[in-house]
């Protein structure tokens, strides 16, 4: 047994020292060896005769060769996880996620739909973990195309990734509310919101892409969602075009780093500039979503990305810019806590209430969900007005009254006789202006003065 372990260690060292290999099996073995050494660096590192940074650099280069990433994106994703977990993430991202459908409860029940599809030869079962009451997992090998059954055409279900159930579950829309899906196409989340509301209230489904509106409208009509209104405006126009919603869902445009199994082109077409521009757009959209909700409402922010620039950093920005919001529990039954910090950057209080989902952990697309509660805005107290004229403090006891009286005796005095003369002269001038004789009878003069005034 011990000899076998020694041989494995020798093979590991040979794999680490070897040059670039075209054989992907050898590359995979070298990656696993490097990951094991890096995870137990104190025990295994010195024996390699190499620095940790050199080994990390080689491992990232092997990830690029084996999985087909650019060095930029491979390093960015590698830094999010522990070494061995990173390899699990890269491997899971090359594996398609299970095909899932969501039952349209406006038209049928999950039990009835499952039985109907089983009778047609479809292999399916409830989602793993039982966290969704409307989801079904479909297995390959069925003779019937799942997107062309009579039940599908009748709107009894929709093909929808399990991960996209999560933001709607966190949103928790209620009947008769007024809700907004800010980036709605192709309509999976919009129609789920409509179903949870029982076709009551209003669901405003917006998407900025005119080309995607057609598919959105088709799904809304097929699933019989009568409370949905479709709009085609830039999400940043809210709330100027419309506001006062009870709940808003923003499934923001993102890099797609969590859904690489669906779109492998992400591996090579995302640059640092893309992440910078996406982060800026996401921050703008989230602030507009928050401003579109009335006091007491809810905003859910989600992405299909695993990078912090598109997730925790955006949420932290919104918390700084809008003091009347706070993060609340998403209510989701699983998922990992959001990062409190990353590479020295702190994301603020409550960020652990957000949720992260990974393909190698929950077997769903990489996803992020945050939920905000909108509080009443604090009214600023009016500033105290300073007096424009100097004033004297009023006396508060007998001693101070006597002192104030003594001070008044030392002040200026007034001649009452002189004041009377000034008053009489002023009256005479006023009478003359009105054509009256100031020496006439005062009663008659007063009556005539009144008549002149009238």
Summarize this entry quickly:
Residues 1-15 have a biased composition (Acidic residues). This protein has 454 residues and is α/β, with parallel strands linked by helices.
Shape annotation: flat
Given helix and strand content, the structural type is alpha/beta
CATH homology group of the largest domain: Vaccinia Virus protein VP39
Number of strands: 15
Family: Belongs to the class I-like SAM-binding methyltransferase superfamily. RsmB/NOP family.
InterPro entries: MeTrfase_RsmB-F_NOP2_cat, MeTrfase_RsmB-F_NOP2_dom, Nop2p, RCMT, RCMT_NOP2, RsmB-like_ferredoxin, RsmB/NOL1/NOP2-like_CS, SAM-dependent_MTases_sf
GO molecular function, one term: RNA binding
Keywords: Methyltransferase, Nucleus, Ribosome biogenesis, RNA-binding, S-adenosyl-L-methionine, Transferase
